[in-house]
Every structure is written in structure tokens, then in C-alpha cells.
Amino acid sequence: MKTRTVLGGAFFLAASMFVLSTQSARCESSASKTSNTAPVSFYEIPLVCPAAPQIGCGSASKPLLLGLESSGVASEAWLNRAGTIMAVVWTQQSSSRQRAKTLKAILREKEITAKELTGQAKQQALKEFGQKVGWYRGADVDRLSEEEAGVIAARLVHRIREKITVTDEKAKAIEEGFNGVLRQKLTGHSTKEDAQEAMIKICRQHVSEKDVATLQEAFAAGVCALKDEK
Question: What range does the domain containing 69 cover?
């Protein structure tokens, strides 16, 4: 009797595992099918970061992508790493008219232009998008903003060292401080005024008050690369 009970329990466990694995496979298959059959449109879009031209602008693209995803007609909105192409995965139930109307309204609100890709350009974008490498969805573009913060912080410290003498140790500390402040600003967690005040405070922690006044010129030049700057 005990042997039968053990065997029966083992059989039940094996059967349960089989059912669960089958259900899981069906779920995965269904999700994959939905993803593969969902209508996708691609748009050429001017969202290259002015301060870091090698990547897309997270702070400019985030409201657009989130706006589309919350519109009810798009389930996903993505930006490629370069900030030149946007992919929109539409909901199955939305009509072409609803999609066009919603996209036009959101683009107008964000003051952004977009041109839909067709033909070979669309097929190339679809191929790249299918690999999901170098694409950022919705709020994930914060990763681009964080990368931009690093580029700007390094640039500002380089300008500082051209104007005053700063040890490597202090330069590293200033850059790390700037990086943290800029991340907060570019991901929408602080204002421009707060960021400027915080950066001046960081400078005061590492250089003299006289040098801080000199550094105002470095900040006045803006965050984009000047001639001969990276």
C-alpha cells in the first residue's frame, strides 16, 4: 500500500509538472505570437541629443514615448539608441485612423516632427527592432539620460581644468558630483535652477571662492560641445 501511495504521488507530481510546462509553453507561444503579429510602425525622428550626438535624447523622447503608451492606441513605443528612429507597436483593436490622429496630436503637443518609414527603410528598421538591441522603451530612455550626464560632466570638468589648476583627485570628485546632479536633472527629478545651484555648491567644496567665480565662464558656455571638444 505504501509503495502504491509513493508511486501514485510520483505519478501525480509528474503529471502536474507536465500540465504546468504545457500551459507555460502555450502562454509563451501566445505572447510570442501577439508580439510578432502586432502592427508596428517606424518613424524617422529628430531626437539626437545635442549635448551627446552619439546617442538619443532621453529627456526629450521620454514624454513622447510615455504619451503614446498611455494613449490607448499604442501598447509600446521605442527609441533607437541613435535617437533617429521611433518604433510604435499599435494595439490590435485600434484603427489606422485612430493611430494617425493620436500620433499627430501627441507630436504637435511635444513639438516634434516625424516621418513614417516605408519600403526598404522600414524593412531594415524592422530587422533591427526585432533584435531588441539598442532600443529603449518608454521610461527606459532614462539610461540614455544617465549616459548623457556622464558626457556633460566630463566636458565641464575638462573646461574647469583649462581655467584653473585642479588635482586629479579633486577633478574626479567634481565630475562624480556633477554626474549625480545631472542625472537627477535629465531624468526629471530636479529643475535646471536646482542643478546649477548644486553644481556651484560642489565646486565650492573643492576650489576657492575666487576660482568658483572664474568657473562661471565654463558654465556660461552651455553643455554642448564647443569647437575641438568631444
Answer: 38-138
User: What is the residue-wise DSSP string for 128-167?
Assistant: HHHHTSSEEEGGGGHHHHHHHHHHHHHHHHHHHHHHS---
Angle between helices 168-186 and 142-163 (to 10 degrees): 140
Q: Considering the entire predicted model, what is its pTM?
A: 0.79
C-alpha cell at 205: 567644496
Q: What is the pLDDT of residues 79-132, one digit of tens each?
A: 999 999 999 999 999 999 999 999 999 999 999 999 999 999 999 999 999 988
CATH code at position 108: 3.30.70.100
90's grid cell: 499599435
Both 56 and 79 in one domain: the answer is: yes
23 within domain boundaries: no
